[in-house]
Specification:
The protein has 3 helices and no strands. By secondary structure, it is mostly helical. It has one domain. The radius of gyration is 23 Å and the shape is elongated. 8% of the residues are buried.
């Protein structure tokens, strides 16, 4: 039995040529969407952190000795990552729908 006759899923199997995921990601502008998402997430996280830690809108009523700025930094990081992922996903879905309409 030669390598060309290998069973499916074995190392000697011939795999047909097909476009890779890199071309798919390029077609959906994932890199650009990711950059925009990270910028939006970082901006929102920085804004929320600054408002809360530096009390830009005044002190929070009923909180004399709340959690320190380190906890809010961690929360701002989680918020920023979540926003970045959501913005990237939304922009990629828009790119996918536009690409589907072109077909």
């Amino acid at each position: 039995m030669s390598d060309r006759d290998a069973a499916p899923g074995t190392p000697g199997e011939d795999v047909p040529e097909r476009p890779g995921t890199a071309a798919f990601a390029r077609a959906l502008n994932v890199k650009r969407n990711g950059r925009i998402g990270v910028a939006a997430g970082a901006s929102i996280a920085a804004l929320v952190y600054a408002v809360r830690v530096f009390e830009l809108l005044g002190p929070v009523p009923g909180s004399d000795a709340g959690p320190g700025p380190v906890l809010f930094l961690a929360l701002a990081f989680v918020l920023g990552v979540g926003v970045a992922l959501l913005v990237t996903l939304a922009l990629t879905l828009v790119s996918a729908s536009r690409a589907a309409r072109r077909l």
